[in-house]
Amino acid sequence: MSDIAGGLTGTMLRVNLTEGEVKRVPTPSDRFERFLGARGVGASMLFDELEPHTDPLGPRNKLIFLTGPLVGTMAPGANKVTVSFRSPLSETYSFSLCGGHLAPELKFAGFDGMVVEGRSDQPVYLWIDNGTATLRDAAHLWGKLTHDTEDAIREELGDPEIRVASIGPAGEKRVRYASIQADYHREFGRGGAGAVMGSKHLKAVAVRGTGSVEVADPAALAQIAEQVYAELAEHPKARLRRRFGTPEMVEATNQFGYWATRNFTTGHFDEADRLTGPELKQKVYIGDNSCYACPVACGKVSPVTRGPFAGQAIEGPEFETIGLLGANCGVSDPEAIIAATAICDAYGFDTMSAGASISLAMEAFERGILGPEDTGGVDLRFGNGEALIAITRQIAERTGLGDVLAEGSKRAAERFGVPDLAMQVKGQELATYEPRGVVGMGLSYAISPKGGHHMIAPTMGLETAGDPARRLIPDGKAKMVRDTQLIMTIVDSLALCASMRFVLGLESMLGLYRAVTGIAIEEQEALLMAERVDNLERLFNLREGLARKDDTLPRRLLKEAMPSGASQGNTVPLDQMLDEYYGLMGWDSSGVPTAERMQELGLQKEWEAAQKARGR
Amino acid sequence: MRHKVLVVYPHKCTGCRICEQWCAQTHHGEMNPAKARLAVHRIHHRQINVPVACSQCIQAPCMEICPAHCIGRDEGTFGLILDAEECIGCRMCVDRCVRGSIKMDADAEIPLLCDLCGGDPQCVKHCPEGAIQYVPFDQADRGFREHHALRLAGEQGGGQ
Description:
The structure holds two protein chains of two kinds. In chain A, α2 (about 40-50) packs parallel to α22 (about 525-545), α12 packs parallel to α15 and α20 (about 475-495) packs across α24 (about 575-585). By secondary structure, chain A is an alpha+beta fold. The longest helix of chain A is centred in the C-terminal third of the chain and has 21 residues, at about 525-545. Chain A has three domains: about 10-210, 4-Layer Sandwich (Aldehyde Ferredoxin Oxidoreductase,  A, domain 1), CATH 3.60.9; about 240-430, Aldehyde Ferredoxin Oxidoreductase Protein, subunit A, domain 2; about 435-615, Aldehyde Ferredoxin Oxidoreductase Protein, subunit A, domain 3. Chain A contains 26 helices and 17 strands. Chain B is α+β, with helices and mostly antiparallel strands. Chain B has one domain. Chain B has helices at about 20-30, 60-65, 90-95, 120-125, 140-155; strands at about 5-10, 40-45, 50, 70-75, 80, 105, 110, 130-135. In chain B, the strands form four sheets. Chain B has a two-stranded antiparallel sheet with strand order 1-8. The two termini of chain B are about 30 Å apart. The chains are: A alpha+beta, B alpha+beta. The interface of A and B includes residues 74, 161, 184 and 222 of A.
């Protein structure tokens, strides 16, 4: 490393599955200097290494796993590993993050990340063991559920402490939103990284690491860590998370009328009382789980009482899961939601895209577009928890209607002849915030480089703070989205959990960075790096041929007034916010970054490549 | 007052491993949980986390079995002290520990023994959940009763 005195191991892995070759390669320190880490470095490598129009499920797509300097240190909540890839769901640039204990284990094993490329003829898994890595036969694991895969690998390697990330049958069968699961119930959830892994015949990655992560100034780091623990212990929102998990958000989201309900036909769920944090705490949760180095412990353990995994327990259900498998399917029975979640985790696919694909089918069923002959006799009406479980299982196994829904809501809705009913942007399903009730989130979804997603710029808290009526109007939202987006890019690139933002401002984050790496970055410089990342992600998509027309929302949210709840009567005034946002980003009215802005960000080469691919 | 001992409550542990971090940092100046003198063992299929730590046995099997007689204890805290010069790296102490809490330092080739940080155990100090506590020996049995009693009575539902 040139100037970076701590944090990084200096080594990555390059795994070529076609050749069956695993190489140790130097960590590209220059990229860490320009793009900070994890998400940012991943975007930069993906842009350079993928040809335009790479088939997402072909051997030329890559899975670029990256951590950052803070991971494995005492930095609170620095437990994420990102994977960057071209998504088979959205066919855009994508990345996904996984918490738990996988990321630090990779660092302790001596690696900052790995690039997985090519395609193996036979199923294999990667065994990373303290500085070495080998590919092993996985024929006997192919077809196994994610949990069983983890257990089988720990058993055959003879070490119960090994961390495993794996795909399940959904990834093998290329469900377009298949996940990569780790530690049973943590995952790279969104965008279909599991399907990419399945297409490469890579079943799992197992890691054992017992080494150290070097830190430039351990005393300074320890001091900041203690301060963060103390602040989190007192912070009201962090305390709510500790007690109730992410479902602490149910009440406010529903009360303000932006909880996506019954396939986004409204923003208020009448039966939300059964799904609030306190209700789940009292009736469902049996324990708490934490990711590495995090004192919040927002993970909740819930028993599975129904469906194929009855008798087991899941970590969750998370708020987004409750939203999309629950409210958005009209299902208020927590046992049904948990049973469906258990299927998603065991087979390895995203609860959010699954929920929004099922809600589409439910609306189509209620409108008579689908009938019992299409659903295998399942009475697929909103609110039917048993139907939810049955169809989730069909998706998992790609049988019947599930085979269509496994393609995602956009493709399924086209097949049903009702493309407007798919609640997606760029092919990826929206999160549970109904943007007619919180319009800045509409802009967030529209500009997200990975398709509909809530964590690119989660503005809902800011939009309802102070005067909650402001959530319904476009004024100031473009700036709010841009500011939030820049901070989130820094959070993701430092591989921090987004929950750390309760107490960690930009200054504190950079304090952690300085203590670990020995490098002082000014706030303005960090924001510029974040902007560089965001623009590079944009350029990737422009190179693929995307344009302003793709920065949009489902027709329902733009044209039809919210029919009920506290946000009744509202629509999303997207064009106005989009114009303003492009302006703030230094992009022209068609959403293309200007040459001047690219020069300021040092992205001329990438810009030219994107322009050339677009025939400009 | 009697000497104090470490008491772990698995039902309170969330598995964040902050204890491991502070232990390793305090003793080795390293960000490396493998060097910690305690571990949080995760039992994946049951979604539970169990802190595994030294319990300061009165008649400590690790001391008694040590063929090199290199394990002693601090008279004040009762914490274990290793004479690293004399240690032969036989791992008998690892085998005999009734809690399974002794790990080997792979670099130094000696066991990692809990010295209670000289009476201010950093794991206890930093555990956000109170899942590991430092209490007088004659009170060390008291904290379990309610949890187990509630469980036996079937009243524990709804998390802790």
